[in-house]
């Protein structure tokens, strides 16, 4: 059977999304999309068996990224699997905003802290594009940090360093010019409403933001002033409808709200804060 014929079979017989069918076939054959259509290679029986196995898993609503063991984020190949959150396209907006602010960040220093780093996708995307900066990624999950470390090697990023820890704890002698974070922000009571791919497979600790979804934002903003230089910036990915409450809390903690950026769906997705006044207790 030819590769393109196999894709048609997966779409017609199993109702697999055409793009996902194409990804499965290309992954198993270890070819790029362009080679699929220019060469249309023959599939061996072993390759077809592997494809069918992947389809069986996908029909059980397992995320395709876990099945393939990888995904792409900001032109980087990111390894993922059970125990680590799958990078989302909307998170690329946060990276975009950091890169746009490169010169502003550099005025206060060249050290960035990425909290709740997970697969390391944010830290690695920033590090790959700003090699002169030093970036630290932190996550409480040892499994996530193992993936992040693999992704660092896979993408040959030299200026990013990953550690296991709870938010700021490992960095008591570090001062940063920028903090980034995509923390858990789903309300506990709404997790059951998520798609099966998310609620049944992705790690609960990477999703659960507490009763109101804001517990980690408060923790981050409560501690950030001790680790962020004056005029340093914070970039937060936020959930739908959370901007007003996070903004109010940030103002209460002494931060200036510089901007709130919307995603392609018009949802306020990334909040940018400025530490316009340094904390007297800053380390």
List keywords for this structure.
seven-stranded mixed sheet, 2 domains, alpha/beta, two-stranded antiparallel sheet, 19% strand, N5-glutamine_MTase, elongated, 283 residues, EC 2.1.1.297, Rossmann fold
Outline the structure in words:
With 283 residues, the protein is an alpha/beta fold. It has two domains: 3-60; 82-274, 3-Layer(aba) Sandwich (Rossmann fold), CATH 3.40.50.150. Helix content is 39%, strand content 19%. It contains twelve helices and nine strands. The strands form two sheets. Strands 5-4-3-6-7-9-8 form a seven-stranded mixed sheet, sandwiched between helices. A hairpin with a 5-residue loop joins strand 8 (256-262) and strand 9 (268-274). Helix 6 packs parallel to helix 8 (121-129). The longest helix has 15 residues, at 45-59. The radius of gyration is 21 Å and the shape is elongated. The protein starts with a helix and ends in a 9-residue tail after the last strand. The model has no long low-confidence stretch (mean pLDDT 93).
Distance between the termini: 65 Å
Low-confidence segments, ≥5 residues, pLDDT <50? none
Share of residues in strands? 15-25%
Average pLDDT level: 93
How many beta strands in the DSSP annotation? 9
Return the structural class. alpha/beta
CATH architecture of the largest domain: 3-Layer(aba) Sandwich
What is the string of SSEs from the N terminus onward? Answer: HHHHHEEHHEHEHEEHHEHEE
According to CATH, the fold-level topology of the largest domain is Rossmann fold
The profile of the biggest β sheet is:
7 strands, mixed
Strand order of the largest sheet: 5-4-3-6-7-9-8
The level of helicity is 25-40%
CATH class type of the largest domain: Alpha Beta
Q: Can you say what the CATH homologous superfamily of the largest domain is?
A: Vaccinia Virus protein VP39
